[in-house]
Amino acid sequence: MEDFLVTLMAWFIHLDAHLLELINAHGDWVYLILFLVIFIETGVIIMPFLPGDSLLFIAGALAAKGLLDPLTLCVLLFIAAVSGDALNFTIGAWFKRRALDTSKIPFVKAEHIAHTQKFFTTHGGKTIILARFVPIVRTLAPFVAALGAMPRKVFFTYNVTGAFLWIGSLVAAGYLFGNIPWISRNLTAVVLGIVVLSILPAVAGWLRSRRTA
Question: Among 67, 80, 111, 132, which residue has the fewest nearby CB atoms (within 10 Å)?
Fold first, then answer.
């Protein structure tokens, strides 16, 4: 049973690589699967390792091939991203009201919380928008915003704006460029490039903090 769960989690984490298989096997049910992945990655603080950026890019590329409807894809994933962040913010507010120790949250490293707090110190409220493009910070930002007592209405504005830019830009990039022959032949390298570009802001921020420490 343990081996099965490990295999299932590994498959889930690398869902981007199996997306075409899912479409062929389950048809329109793949929209629900994609919705759940984006919702869980943005809404569940202990699941920051799901393949958000690469999944959106590949979904856009498959939409360009006619395997997914681009409008349906964008609308559903936008709703998933907004509602996921809203859930995450609500959980953070719950922790704040009860003055709970965030360092004891399973699978969440205290340094990741601290790094996200520094991200807020540097970028202010627009962190909610910028964090959409930074793995791990993307998942922690709404939670930390609630801990910092960001007003819910202010958070909602940033949440909707960030979700629109994140979903729209990566799905559009996959739709426009994902099926260019060179990119299709080197999709793994492209996806890795997306991941590297996504984490560059976090790395740059960490380097700056090291220099000023």
Answer: 111
Q: What is the Cβ-side half-sphere exposure of residue 87, based on CA atoms within 13 angstroms?
A: 16
Q: How confident is the model over 146-177, as pLDDT tens digits?
A: 888 789 999 999 999 999 999 998 999 889 88
Instruction: Please tell me the pTM assigned to this model.
Output: 0.78
Copy the structure tokens of residue 50.
Answer: 């799901």
d(CA 148, CA 20): 41
8 Å CB contact between 22 and 33: yes
